[in-house]
Amino acid sequence: MVHHSDAPLTGGPGRWWRAPLRPARFDSALRSARLTSLLGVALGAAFAVCFVTGLISHLIQHPPGWFPWPSRPAGLYRFTQGLHVATGLATVPLLGAKLWSVFPRLFTWPPIRSVVHAAERAGVAVLVAAALFQVVSGVLNVSRWYAPMPFFFTAAHYWMAWLLLGAVLLHIAVQLPVISSALARRAVPRESGGLSRRGLLGAVGGPAGLITVTTVGQTVRPLAGLALFAPRNPRIGPQGLPVNATAAGAGVGSVITDPRYRLVVTGTRRAVSLGLTDLALMRQHTARLPIACVEGWSADGQWSGVRLRDLVALVGDDPDRATVLVESVQTAGRYRSTTVPPGHTRDELTLIALRLGGEPLHPDHGYPARLIAPNRPGVLQTKWVGRITVLGPR
Known about the structure:
Blueprint: H1 23-26, H2 33-61, H3 76-102, H4 115-142, H5 153-184, E1 191-192, E2 195-196, H6 197-213, H7 247-250, H8 253-256, E3 263-266, E4 271-274, H9 276-281, E5 285-292, E6 298-307, H10 308-314, E7 322-328, E8 337-340, H11 342-345, E9 351-356, E10 359-360, E11 370-372, E12 385-393
Parallel strand pairs: 3-12
Antiparallel strand pairs: 1-2, 3-4, 5-6, 6-9, 7-8, 7-12, 9-10, 9-11
């Protein structure tokens, strides 16, 4: 995706095989190897941040045995996922400018000149396709518009990220001499239509910064007033907090309002069945913790309820070593249950919450009881909890 000269791409006698199909339409004096390299460095850095933070999110939700995710600091996931989404949105103008800078090269003729050239162009095709897929599907996800995606977003986004990483590394390996030479070369001032190359970089960086400022307020509360284009306002929702899954959508309305509701806690030695009155009579604790969603938004809430470690101890198990399965009364759903590792089980901030902001939980926030734990994605903060099972030390 980097051409080999700082001169603009043009046709001309003796160079017809390197010229774009319609040079008059595609040519611009602003295009150069240096400009493409600078845009590539910025885009590569953004993709690297997105890959690392996205990988963290995936490992938290699907933890392998070797991956320990701590319970503190309580807002670490809020930061990493907010950075993931903010950086991903900022790549939109960067990717557009990068593709524009190499657009004529995509239409050279003949399209394949050798086996090596064919392999190189195939790698570029994979790179472009994977980059566009990640950016477009990511924007659709944070907007919660899944109709155009006939696949499970999380799995597709994860595996495509690895494909994109491989394509980027291969592209860098192939183009590194060109990139190094272009960046070391002194910039040649050029203008097209009154716009200089420096002005073009500003025209790309400006929108990237503007997108960040006008969306990051969905997780950085001091900037909430500037979040004009954020998909989610973290101040709007039941009891002042947004929700993704509602009680009506989960089909739990009749179960959670049944006066015979019981929270069943099963240990390795014994089990107990607790009604709301029983839970209210246990020692109550309050913690201020964020709901941090994978779509990038987050919001703080003041939660009150019973510590998970106290419930584990109630059935005779050691909360410092216990792995716990928390299940919703939902009968279906990809996230109807979650496993809480020992580090979170023992943490005093991990609650089976009964109240939010001093009031009983709204049904959409998980009434009659929900899990709220520090430093976990919102999809793992199980709502409408009906059963807790101690799996034993892990």
